[in-house]
Amino acid sequence: MDVNELISKLQQEFEDVPAGTLKPETKLSDIPDWSSMHALIIIALADIEYGVTIKGEELRKAQSIQELYNMIITKQSNPS
After folding, report:
1. Which member of 2, 4, 38, 70 has the lowest number of beta carbons within 10 Å of its beta carbon?
2. Could you give the number of structural domains in the chain?
3. What angle do CA 59, 65, 67 make, to 5 degrees?
4. Sign of CA pseudo-dihedral 24, 30, 33, 38
5. How far apart are CA 28 and CA 67, in angstroms?
6. Per-residue pLDDT tens listing for the chain (80 residues)
């Protein structure tokens, strides 16, 4: 997996976000109409697609899509 694959999956899940809007440097809070529903989608996506559990407080620490990607990769490499 690379960050572009994650972006592609997020783009599919966030139907209300225009195509091409998301980039690695995109701040999660800057995603149009960002809400707690988006956070839940990310948590579910990480679990289903990547076998990683992300808690709400962990997600709040990820500022950008790149940081979210780094978190997922780290968790895959170091399961707890």
Report:
1. 2
2. 1
3. 65
4. positive
5. 10
6. 899 999 999 999 998 888 889 999 999 999 888 889 999 999 999 999 999 999 999 999 999 999 999 999 999 998 76
